[in-house]
Design brief:
202 residues, alpha/beta, elongated, WH-like_DNA-bd_sf, DNA-binding, transcription regulation
């Protein structure tokens, strides 16, 4: 059986090597690229496998790379690697057609699960995913204020910024955040944002 191919694009050589080593031990075929330009120059048509790219890179960043791939008709699944605080960029990437995003630093299982899911689906998760449907059901149980805090969190707002916008204290924002995290059963802010984006709530 031919191993699944993953294209790893990151200008950080240590990051590329680390990811490539992990994927190699899990049976994936891996090709590494140090930039979006490098990837586009070596790209076969149509692109095969799954594309794992950093969102912040010089010359052509992850978003521009995704735009160019989709404009050229490439439908290969794309997963974005984002840094903490890149929530608005991750949301934009999903709207452009990325199938998933993971936040650095991520653990091995998070990456492997995202890649296997993307390769199995070949495209966006969509709201047909049972996990996402259940998340939507839980969101519907939120109070109006909890939903407002959720919307601002997904938009990348800090507790201080959200408090200013909603005219409540940052401490009160934290209380609402804890309540909505419990109700939605999201294990982390990253998971909350990811589910929200995949459910089309962002």
């Amino acid at each position: 059986m031919t191993p699944d191919l993953v294209h790893v694009i990151d200008d950080d050589a240590a990051m590329r090597d680390s990811v490539a080593f992990l994927l190699g031990t899990e049976g994936f075929a891996v090709r590494q690229y140090d930039s979006g330009v490098d990837f586009l120059e070596r790209l076969e048509k149509p692109a095969s496998g799954c594309i794992l790219t950093d969102i912040r890179m010089p010359v052509i960043d992850g978003l521009e790379l995704l735009r160019r791939l989709r404009a050229a008709g490439h439908a290969a699944p794309v997963i974005m690697m984002t840094a903490h605080g890149d929530v608005p960029l991750a949301v934009e990437a999903m709207k452009l057609g990325a199938c998933d995003f993971i936040e650095k630093p991520f653990d091995d299982e998070t990456l492997l699960h995202a890649l296997r899911s993307a390769l199995r689906r070949g495209g966006p998760v969509g709201t047909v995913d049972p996990t996402i449907q259940e998340f939507i059901r839980r969101v519907e149980t939120l109070s109006e204020r909890e939903r407002q805090v959720l919307d601002h969190l997904v938009a990348g707002g800090t507790s201080k910024e959200i408090g200013r916008t909603l005219d409540i204290s940052p401490r009160t924002v934290e209380i609402y955040r804890a309540k909505l995290m419990a109700k939605t059963q999201a294990a982390s802010l990253q998971e909350l944002v990811r589910w929200s984006v995949l459910a089309g709530l962002a």
